[in-house]
């Protein structure tokens, strides 16, 4: 029996607020991958990045669904249910995304 996420009703069509992790851009930190909040458009870095700003955004706002934004992954993740979710659409990148390799 597969579990269905009940938080998909929070998914919005959003515009990314920045061209990189909002917090990393302010502080000069680097990121590995970007995640997009599908409720408000916050762009944050992944948990493999030093700042872990997407997870921090979830804890601060309780916005449950994120999208793999850079690189585009075409899928979502629910922090509450800890499962992958299907997204109704993929958010186009505002690019070019700055690279921190």
State the gist of this model.
It is built from two helices and five strands, in the order αββαβββ.
Primary descriptors:
101 residues; alpha+beta; 5-stranded antiparallel sheet; globular
Which descriptor suits the 3D outline? globular
Number of strands: 5
Element order: H for helix, E for strand? HEEHEEE
**Proportion of beta-strand residues:** 15-25%
| Termini gap | 41 Å
Number of helical segments with 4 or more residues: 2
Q: Mean of the pLDDT scores?
A: 92
Largest sheet: 5 strands, antiparallel
What is the gyration radius calculated from CA atoms? Answer: 13 Å
> What topology, given as strand order, has the largest sheet?
2-1-3-4-5
Query: In which range does the helix fraction lie?
Result: 10-25%
Return residue spans where pLDDT drops below 50 for at least 5 consecutive residues.
Answer: none
Chain-wise SSE layout:
Blueprint: H1 22-27, E1 34-37, E2 43-45, H2 53-61, E3 65-70, E4 76-78, E5 83-85
Antiparallel strand pairs: 1-2, 1-3, 3-4, 4-5
Describe the structure.
The protein is an alpha+beta fold. Helices cover 15% and strands 19% of the residues. The chain has 2 helices and 5 strands. The chain has helices at 22-27, 53-61, and strands at residues 34-37, 43-45, 65-70, 76-78, 83-85. The protein has a 5-stranded antiparallel beta sheet. Strand 3 (65-70) and strand 4 (76-78) form a beta hairpin. It is globular and about 40 Å long. The N and C termini lie far apart (41 Å). The model has no long low-confidence stretch (mean pLDDT 92).
């Amino acid at each position: 029996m597969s579990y269905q996420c009940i938080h998909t009703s929070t998914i919005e069509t959003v515009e990314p607020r920045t061209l990189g992790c909002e917090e990393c851009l302010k502080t000069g930190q680097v990121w590995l991958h970007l995640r997009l909040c599908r409720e408000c458009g916050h762009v944050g870095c992944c948990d493999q990045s030093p700042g872990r700003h997407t997870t921090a955004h979830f804890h601060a706002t309780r916005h449950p669904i994120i999208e793999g934004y850079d690189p585009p992954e075409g899928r979502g993740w629910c922090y509450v249910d800890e499962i992958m979710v299907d997204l109704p659409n993929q958010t186009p990148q505002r690019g070019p995304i700055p690279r921190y390799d």
